[in-house]
Amino acid sequence: MAPLRPRGDPSLWLGAVLVATLIAAAALSLVWTPYPPNAIDIPHKLAGPSAAHWFGTDNLGRDVASRMLAGSRISILVGVIAVGIGLAFGIVLGLVAAFSRGIVEDGIMKMSDFMFAFPALLLAIMLTSTFGPGVVNAIVAIGVYNVPIIAKLTRATANGVLAREYALAARAAGRGPVAIALDHVLPNIAPALIVQATIQFAIAILAEAALSYLGLGAQPPETSWGKMLADAQTVLYNAPGLALYPGIAIALSVLGLNLLGDGLRDALDPKLKARS
Amino acid sequence: MLLDVVELAIDLPAPDGWRRVVDRVSFGLDEGESLGVVGESGSGKTMTALAIMGLAPDGAEVKGSIRFEGRELVGLTEEAMGQLRGDRIAMVFQEPMTALNPLRGVGAQVAEPLMLHRGLAGHEARGRAAQLLERVGLAEPERAARSYPFMLSGGERQRAMIAMAIGCGPRLVIADEPTTALDVTVQARILALIDGLRSESGMGVLLVSHDLAVIAGHCDRVIVMYAGVIMEMGPVQAVMAEPRNPYTLALLEARPRPGAPRGSRLKTIPGAPELKSGPSAGCPFAGRCALTMDICWTTPPPEAAFGLNHVSRCHRASELGRAP
Fold it and tell me: Do B95 and A187 touch (CB under 8 A)?
């Protein structure tokens, strides 16, 4: 693989720093938060930012900084698992479609188009309203939404690789479809999948926040940025900061992932690199 | 006989039914023999080569018979064909740039058929791959084995492709325009390498090219194809010296030749090959031929034999035979 040349691309670096911060926050929250994120302290509720409470406290007196740190965990968890579900099923379906051609390919692609027609949130609301709210169902719903996107991308890029002479040469060397898929197709379509996965990660974080905001995702006492937004809504006039912090955190995470995805696309695509 | 192709026909699906891209193709190839297939783009030469490999495009219908070492290949299962490919029959492709996977080391790609067909373990296969790379004339074979395709020159890549093809000691090597993408000097060396390997191992070589000079210099016999049909077939010297088909003659006259008068124009063949949907009524070349008669439009020309193994499909073949 050609070495990355990120020097001239600040968006890749900014994106990487933001995403790294998100991961670091989630990792930190596993071992340390300033206060237990669910510790209620009514006498000190709705306190402004101070040395004791960096971001103040919420309507139940819980430390907002601690809850922000704990909430980042859910965002990452949802992103990783939902994108993982999308990649696992999407890649397999896309490869099967690309290799099988004919009726199987048509079937898989028509199914993907059908799923694709539903907006992510609508699909998630449908699934959570059927199977009940909760983080797990939200993750599954977002993951299911990712499957057709990855499947379509895999099929399109895999067909591109299969049209290349080295795929024909591999067949001429007597290799079977599974070996060609693993050795030749996957490595060559990996850049496109990595970029798409980054973008789907951002969409998953947004979708989880939206679902939790609607009460379909994280349930009390779980902490999630979307849940914090919903809680802040009731005290918006007394403590507007409570809505601001999780909102900014969501925005920066999504921005970071999108910048990272864009930067990776430019860095991994030799054609774009040659042009710049 | 190593390879015996009888009445091969290939139909490709087209919007309006089927399109016959190869028709009535019959030829044989002996061990140690080199057979050239020449023709312009769309003449069916690559399609014939792919059909022998069992790699005709999806949806293509292959009819007729292809016998390799006495075994019928038409209708063979994908699995059985996969065992032959890369082992008994190997193929060298045109574009050494794109015929190697850019993300895998050259040594690993050369080792691949050995692990697949010979069951060699990874390190054995890689050692053998380095030997093969040396045998095809790569200086520093160890370095080449560790390289990625982009680190090698076009000629080196084509040598690596050949190493990949000959790894299992195939009896038949199909080379589809193996030197078209290379400089003329590199071209000569690659062709000499294929010649050398052929005389060493006694494998048969099917050399597909649009370059008559390449075929003239490196083949025993030649097939001239046009619009999926064999127009003329015979020993290279006979076909070059006394072409018995107006199409061969036209190809020979379209070559640039040293010693031609300054300012003289190259001859061209007017028109372009036409696409047809079924077996054509007359001669496929009738529309572009300088010698067309009425019968050429209505009756497919029969095979006429001249001397040893020299056949031509032309109604006026007996009138021809002059030097180009």
Answer: no
Does any domain span residue A207?
yes
Closest CB from A101, A164, A173 relative to B98: A164
Q: Contact at 8 Å (CB) between B233 and B310? A: yes
CA distance B220 to B8: 22
Q: What tokens does A197 get?
A: 């996965």
The strand pair at B89-92 and B172-176 is best described as parallel
pTM score, whole prediction: 0.80
Helical segments of chain B, H only: 45-53, 78-84, 106-117, 122-135, 141-146, 154-166, 184-201, 212-218, 236-241, 246-253, 294-298
The answer to whether the peptide bond before residue A177 is cis (omega within 30 degrees of 0) is: no
Of the candidates B51, B1, B64, which has an alpha carbon nearest to the alpha carbon of residue B28?
B1
Please judge whether B113 and A165 are an interchain contact, meaning their C-beta atoms are less than 8 angstroms apart: no
Indicate whether A127 belongs to any domain.
yes
Would you say residue A39 lies in a domain? no
Which of A34-48, A56-70, B130-144, B223-237 comes out lowest in average pLDDT?
Answer: A34-48
Which residues of chain A neighbour B99 with C-beta distances below 8 Å? Answer: 165-166, 168-169
Could you read off the pLDDT of B104-163 as tens digits, one per residue? Answer: 999 999 999 999 999 889 899 999 999 999 988 888 999 999 999 989 988 899 999 999
Residue among A1, A101, A172 whose CB faces B90 most closely? A172
Residues in chain B: 324
* B41-68 confidence digits (pLDDT tens): 888 899 999 999 999 888 899 999 999 9
CB contact under 8 A, B113 and A173: yes
CA distance B211 to chain A (A): 21
CB contact under 8 A, A173 and B95: no
pLDDT > 90: percent of chain B: 51
- Structural contact between residues B300 and B67, judged by C-beta atoms closer than 8 angstroms: no
SS3 label, residue B232: strand
Q: What is the distance between the alpha carbons of residues B99 and B182, in angstroms, rounded to a whole number?
A: 14
Is the CB of A273 inside 8 Å of chain B's CB atoms? no
Q: How close, in Å, is residue B172 to chain A by CA atoms?
A: 12
Q: What is the CATH number of the domain that holds A249?
A: 1.10.3720.10
Residues of chain B with pLDDT under 50: none
Q: Which domain does A153 fall in, by range?
A: 10-28+57-270
With a CB cutoff of 8 Å and minimum separation 6, the contacts of B153 are: none
Q: Is B203 helix (H, G, I), strand (E, B) or coil?
A: coil
CA–CA dist A27, A80 (Å, integer): 14
Smallest Cα distance from A10 to chain B, Å? 27
- Tally of domains within chain A: 1
Measured between beta carbons, which residues in chain B are less than 8 angstroms from residue A187? 101, 103-104
Q: With a threshold of 0.90, tell me whether the complex ipTM lies above it.
A: no
Closest by Cβ to B53, choosing from A102, A172, A183: A172
Look at residue A219 and give its three-state secondary structure. Answer: coil
Classify residue A215 as left (phi > 0), alpha (psi -120 to 50) or beta: left
Distance CA B90, CA B51 (A): 13
Cα B72 to Cα A110: distance, rounded to the nearest angstrom: 39
- What are the angstrom distances between the C-alpha of A162 and each of A124, A159, B155, B171, B177? 34, 5, 24, 27, 20
CB contact under 8 A, B82 and A175: yes
- Rounded to 5°, the CA angle A209-A201-A97 comes to 125
Residue A195 counted as domain residue: yes
